[in-house]
Design brief:
With 454 residues, the protein is α/β, with parallel strands linked by helices. Helix content is 42%, strand content 16%. The chain has 18 helices and 15 strands. Strand 6, helix 6 and strand 7 form a beta-alpha-beta unit. Helix 3 runs antiparallel to helix 5, helix 4 crosses helix 15 and helix 15 packs across helix 16. The chain is globular, with a radius of gyration of 20 Å. The structure holds pyridoxal-5'-phosphate. The site of pyridoxal-5'-phosphate has 20 residues, from helix 6, helix 12 and helix 16.
């Protein structure tokens, strides 16, 4: 009997709207707060930094469905739909009765889900007459996607890449430069924020927090320049819901519905992208899917962070966001999952966790690479170190099923491939990688310094 392995959609079946979960959440996220006035932020405030349409989407708690502009749909069709794949070989290797599916966001030429939001952000920027965009990037996937999207819509892109990631993954800066972007390691000496950070700590290896500070400073000091962000914010997760909306139709083709939905978690965009379209059926009581966000043990904001208003960046330029955080000056260990080295969580996910509608799980680095190796050897795809967290969490759930005999349907997001991350795999294979855990005292100490708003 031939078993169907892959489920894809016809062009005519591709979603034409994104799903805005904010409109349907039982408790809406609290408003971001202006760092200086301590007043709730308006979209006008946000539009000084972000494209106006993105600023409006960020605070939209009213419209559940947002039309995807035709010009963005057209670019989506270059690589969408992405396949939904049944991981038969992984199931067999685990000896689990669970059915494991993954949504393969690694198949576009940039290699990760990030392009789903890079395209609309650059499109909206171009629409309002912007000529330049700037951003931060950790491992480089967002920078690569943004650089491509900027070239698609004829914008100049300047990218601050976290210094440690630049060294770990040199080819990602080559990719960005191939698309015409300029790339600078963060912290750099080209911004005040960067200089301040280097003065305090000359050997600072950079973090998403430092790179965000520098990119925002460039955007606010350059005429006709807008800032774009690849994670954390609501409008980014909104754009990413294309993943879950497709997956929902594809699961239907497979004749199943997920009992468990899993994604790795940096700031929440690939998690929200896959999970939110399914979660809406939990809100109505129609379904009872479990949602799990997998984060690194060394950066455990969901499982061990505190719900507080905090800055999104190291220097404190961003609005204050109500979120689970380890403190904006938290310095994550130099793990290879660069995209997960972020101190906070998006405000939607933070509210959902507070309300018990999903949960986080934190996973040690070595377990994530073990999971990635098994996945590579069974399914033939080398996953990004970030995605390995989702795979490890999936394996934990599948093994529970092996013990209980439960035939759960598990769906996880393969957020990207790891072909530019082979230094990390080399180190794993050579036995040179280690786990990093942090103590409660370290977490407490870092959170003590948060601005007290709540
Ligand atoms: C950026 C990135 C992540 C983490 O970001 P989220 O916004 O949490 O999705 C995960 N996986 C890959 C491949 C990434 O590039």
């Amino acid at each position: 009997m031939s078993r169907q392995k892959k489920f894809i959609l016809e062009e005519s079946e591709l979603p034409r709207e994104w799903y805005n979960i904010q409109a349907e959440m039982p408790n809406k996220p609290m408003m971001p707060i202006h760092p200086a006035t301590r007043q709730p932020l308006s979209w006008e405030d946000l539009s000084h930094i972000f494209p106006t349409e993105c600023a409006k989407q960020e605070l939209d708690q009213e419209h559940a469905w947002i039309p995807i502009p035709e010009e963005v749909q057209e670019k989506y069709r270059y690589y969408r739909s992405t396949p939904l794949v049944r991981a038969y070989a992984l199931e067999e290797a685990l000896g689990t009765p669970a059915h494991i599916y993954f949504k393969n966001e690694s198949v576009n030429p940039l290699g990760s889900h990030k392009i789903n939001s890079a395209l609309p952000q650059c499109y909206y920027a171009k629409q309002e007459g912007t000529t330049n965009v700037t951003t931060e990037t950790g491992a480089g996937q967002w920078g690569a996607a943004l650089s491509y999207a900027a070239s698609v819509y004829g914008l100049e892109a300047a990218v601050y890449q976290v210094k440690i990631s630049m060294q770990q993954k040199p080819y990602r800066s080559s990719i960005m430069r191939t698309f015409g972007a300029t790339v600078e390691g963060s912290p750099s000496m080209s911004t005040r924020a960067g200089k301040d950070i280097i003065t305090r700590d000359p050997r600072h290896s950079g973090s998403l927090g430092t790179a965000i500070s520098e990119a925002i400073e460039l955007a606010t000091t350059t005429p006709n320049c807008k800032y774009t962000l690849g994670s954390v914010l609501n409008h980014v997760s909104l754009h990413q819901t294309i993943i879950g909306l497709e997956a929902e139709k594809q699961m239907e083709k497979a004749g199943e519905y997920p009992d468990t939905v899993i994604a790795c978690f940096g700031g929440g965009s690939n998690f929200g992208g896959l999970a939110f379209p399914f979660m809406r059926h939990n809100f109505t009581g129609e379904k009872h899917t479990e949602f799990i966000a997998a984060e690194p043990e060394s950066c455990p904001k969901l499982t061990r962070g505190k719900f507080e208003y905090d800055f999104g960046d190291e220097a404190g330029y961003t609005p204050l966001l109500p979120m689970f955080t380890l403190g904006h000056d938290f310095k994550p260990a130099n793990i290879h999952a660069g995209g997960l080295r972020y101190h906070g969580a998006g405000v939607i996910v933070s509210q959902l966790i507070k309300d018990g509608l999903m949960r986080g799980v934190d996973i040690p680095q070595l377990e994530t690479f073990q999971a990635g190796m098994l996945f590579a050897r069974t399914e033939g795809i080398i996953p990004a170190p970030e995605s390995c967290h989702a795979i490890a969490a999936t394996i934990r759930e599948a093994e529970k099923c092996r013990q209980t005999g439960e035939q759960k349907v598990i769906l996880f997001n393969l957020s990207g491939h790891g072909l530019i991350d082979m230094t990390a795999y080399d180190q794993y294979l050579n036995g040179d990688l280690q786990n990093y855990s942090i103590s409660d005292e370290e977490i407490e100490k870092n959170i003590e310094n948060l601005p007290k708003v709540l």
